[in-house]
Design a protein that fits this description.
The chain is of the alpha+beta class. It is built from 10 helices and 16 strands. Strands 1-2-13-10 form a 4-stranded mixed sheet, with helices on both faces. The protein has a 3-stranded antiparallel sheet with strand order 3-6-7, with helices on one face. The chain has a 3-stranded antiparallel sheet with strand order 12-11-16. The chain is globular and about 70 Å long. Bound molecules: protoporphyrin IX containing FE (HEM) and ligand UGT.
Length: 364
């Protein structure tokens, strides 16, 4: 009863916003009445194709932690709300990766699978991203690969995944829980996963580290929430900002922890932090990431460009009379923060709807 009233309220709030932004969408009062009746009759309601598409774009626009929102209108929406079985979800996720990769000219895409409905939860993808590298834990607790994914690696191995070949960059299978069955794993075809080998623009010693990263970041573990309806499996991708790979994924001590390795390879004095060897290694890894993606013809943005774009987005939204919520601690890049414009200001922390939300962690 309470959540029916809450759903009615959120549905009406979304429909009013939607009709304000999509002038040609017809008479809001009629749609609101029809949706209210559907909620009273069934406990839920179905978005029109255009409500879904625009709602997904609004959710990107409302992502307070996202620096890349200038192009929010360009999101390509794949409406797969009729898909709820694990096999088809896996196949559609592969098709998503192909459409997003586009030979390296990456396109922002979202695929929306079946929503949660009363007594019938929607499907879930257990991977944090469609492409993730395995983290194999040995007897002594040492991890080969990405420690961030050690839990999922152990879990999918328990489901029967044979693993292998045992490199630092083995692509994990997708783990999909169809809306009515247990989680199952599906290997990704090699030709659906675009990867970039990492080389340094000037120093040939870097290549011998054998580093690589995948080109398409596609978040698959968040709910798309539109007008009170939750789409628990709605993988979305953009392109990377180089610092995500160069400053976090490859450099964090609880990830690939490569600063000491790269510093040694570049002959830096690592005897004391005061030589700023970590800072110099960070810059060189980030230069290598940007150089390698450019050389491979894979879209990537740098944190200076992206900072300028985000400030332009703020201007554009102000011009449209819309507030922009943003989270400074996520918007400011992890290296050279104060050398980017986004550092030198504060932000409205309003959280607008529709939005992307993390699944409530049952483990938390
Ligand atoms: C097109 C290029 C894009 C770039 C360069 C970009 C960049 C970023 C970066 C750097 C972050 C912070 C990630 C981190 O620190 O781990 C982020 C967060 C986020 N982005 Fe974007 N983004 C892009 C497109 C998109 C798209 C297409 C969507 C959704 C349709 C999106 C939704 C989000 C969300 C929801 C977060 C926060 C995730 C969380 O709370 O864990 N972004 N983005
Ligand atoms: N470039 C990106 N980066 C990210 C966007 C959202 C989330 C993440 C990963 O967030 C994890 C949780 C905190 N840091 C790692 C990365 C995009 C992914 C999908 C669309 S754009």
């Amino acid at each position: 009863a309470a959540d029916i009233a809450q759903l009615r309220k959120e549905a009406e709030e979304f429909l009013r916003l939607y009709h304000r932004e999509e002038r040609g969408a017809g008479d809001p009062a009629a749609r609101i009445a029809a949706v209210r009746a559907e909620i009273d009759a069934t406990g839920t309601y179905r978005h029109t194709a255009d409500e879904l598409a625009h709602g997904a774009r609004m959710a990107w626009r409302n992502s307070n932690r996202c620096i890349g929102r200038l192009y929010w209108r360009s999101l390509r929406v794949r409406d797969r709300r009729d898909v709820r079985d694990a096999d088809t979800i896996a196949a559609e996720a592969v098709a998503h990766l192909r459409e997003a990769t586009n030979g390296g000219r990456i396109r922002p895409v979202i695929t929306v699978f079946a929503p949660d409905a009363p007594g019938c939860p929607g499907p879930r993808i257990w991977n944090e991203q469609l492409v993730r590298y395995a983290g194999y834990t040995d007897g002594a607790g040492r991890v080969t690969g990405d420690p961030r994914n050690a839990g999922l690696t152990a879990y999918v191995t328990g489901l029967g995944w044979p693993g292998g070949p045992g490199t630092q960059f083995d692509v994990l299978p997708l783990v999909v829980q169809g809306s009515d069955d247990k989680p199952r794993w599906f290997g990704l075809p090699d030709d659906a996963v675009h990867e970039v080998p990492l080389h340094h623009p000037e120093d040939d010693r870097f290549a011998s580290l054998g580093l690589r990263w995948h080109a398409v970041p596609a978040i698959s573990n968040m709910c798309l929430e539109i007008g009170g309806i939750c789409y628990p499996a709605a993988p979305f991708n953009g392109w990377y900002m180089g610092t995500e790979i160069g400053a976090r994924n490859l450099a964090d001590t609880d990830r690939y922890d490569l600063l000491p390795v790269v510093a040694a390879r570049l002959g830096l004095d690592t005897s004391t932090d005061r030589t700023l060897w970590k800072d110099r290694a960070l810059v060189e890894i980030n230069r290598a990431v940007l150089h390698s993606f450019d050389r491979a013809g894979a879209t990537i943005t740098d944190h200076h460009t992206e900072s300028r774009r985000f400030l332009a987005h703020l201007e554009q939204e102000a011009g449209r009379g819309r507030r922009v919520g943003a989270d400074w601690s996520w918007i400011v890049p992890p290296i050279s923060g104060s050398a980017t414009g986004v550092f030198h200001r504060t932000y409205d922390t309003v959280q607008a709807h529709p939005l992307f939300v993390h699944h409530p962690d049952a483990l938390a």
